[in-house]
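Feature request, filed as a ticket because there's no other form

It would be nice if the structure record came with a short human-readable summary line next to the tokens. Right now we just get the raw output. Example of a typical job, pasted below so the devs can see what we mean:
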Amino acid sequence: MDQDAAETGTLLISEIVTNAVRHGHSHSVRVIAEQPRPDRLRVAVVDKSCRVPELHIVGPDAIGGRGLLLVDALSDRWGTDLLPWGKRVWAEIAIKVGDR
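Raw output as currently delivered:
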């Protein structure tokens, strides 16, 4: 995978993990990074909270609250899958095939 995709994937994981730790109220999270297709990177974080993350627009003086805005801006698509015992928040980006 190209360096840009790796760096973007790392930032996406960081933002989603931060959201899970701050708002998920669980003692642990599971981080998943996979390539469902050769040209896609999918990162996900699973926690035990059923609370679905919400995208908020915050003012310029706000200290936080921009994590999902970054996820939305950096990913091609993102979403939440509700699970019987929690949720999985995921994001996908395109990656270059054949460049290593």
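Something like this underneath would help us a lot:
Strands lie at 30-34, 40-47, 77-83, 86-94.
The chain has a mean pLDDT of 89.
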